[in-house]
Amino acid sequence: MVLNTQKISQHTVSVIGSGSWATAMVKMLADNKLEKEIFWWVRKEEDIEYINRYRHNPTYLSAVEVKLEENHVLSDARQAIRSTDIVILNTPAAYLKLALQGVEKPDLEGKIIVSAIKGIIPDENLIVGEYLNQTYDVPLDHIVVIGGPCHAEEVSQEKLSYLTFASKDLDKAQIVADLLSNRYINANISDDVLGVEYGAVLKNIYALAGGICHGLGYGDNFQAVLVSNAIREMEFFVQEIDPADREINASVYLGDLLVTAYSQFSRNRTFGNMIGKGYTVQSAQLEMNMVAEGYYASDCIQSIIHKNELEMPICNMVYQVLYNHQPATFEVSKLAKKLT
């Protein structure tokens, strides 16, 4: 059955994922004043028991109170999805397929599917919207993509933040924006789905680059040049992939890049900083105990760069360091000569 967004007065929403961003999104939904019913898929049974008993996620953003009705925290993703008309996917991109195991095409039929994921599905090398369309036959105009700049940690502290909701169907983007807006979340609407998705992927790679350079001892002067080159490289890439009339200095592109490149909460910058200081990829991953989307994205984006014969020196530097195990000092030194 096709969802008729004009006739639904109360939405049912499921959040698929249990990390920091998913926890923050449950909080955003609960703090919104519109009438709705919220279901939350959490992977670990012990976490579900803890949440039901103490109303907090024991692993991520543990200070956030979980304001859900009884029995609305579920271990079965398919059950959570089938109970709702709006599905918010909020796992690391590399783990999305695992989260959706057992979910079938009819389970997503007619629903608004929202991607709050800022990464690429590794094996298929697809952004999330394309993956949903090709794997589950979700129509592109039923997909809404959420872009930043917005760190979960600041949302948990109710610091004023801005999100962009992008869809080919602006009415659906508005529905999702209305459900997630509240006194500390402001919403923008966009039809630039590919630009928002690819921009979110690229800014993680550029934050990794900034972290690598910081770990090597490069200062703020160099970081400013790196980021100003990064936004131009991002614009070049998205225009090559999807030519459109977009304003690259908008908050969803430049703003998200800035906060990810500079914020203390940026796991991609933190990961890159550790690499710059001499950590191996494996040791950095173990110490962080969190997913840095830019690591997986670097490999995927490099394939697209190669396929389209694009010149992307910052992305190339990150790839050479992370995947070809080239010395960071050498690769950043080469990069520095190309920056302007």
Features:
340 residues, alpha/beta, Rossmann fold, N-(1-d-carboxylethyl)-l-norvaline Dehydrogenase, domain 2, 2 domains, 8-stranded mixed sheet, two-stranded antiparallel ribbon, 16 helices, 10 strands, 51% helix, disordered N terminus
Please explain how this structure is put together.
Strands 3-2-1-4-5-8-9-10 form an eight-stranded mixed beta sheet, sandwiched between helices. Strands 6-7 form a two-stranded antiparallel sheet. It is globular and about 55 Å long. The chain is an alpha/beta fold and 340 residues long. It has helices spanning 20-31, 45-54, 77-82, 96-99, 105-108, 128-136, 152-156, 170-180, 193-216, 220-241, 251-262, 267-276, 281-288, 293-308, 313-322, 328-336, and strands at 11-16, 36-41, 73-74, 86-89, 112-115, 120-121, 126-127, 143-147, 161-166, 185-190.
Cα separation of the termini: 54 Å
Helicity, as a percent range: 40-55%
Chain oligomer state = single chain
Mean pLDDT: 93
CATH topology of the largest domain: Rossmann fold
* Total DSSP helices: 16
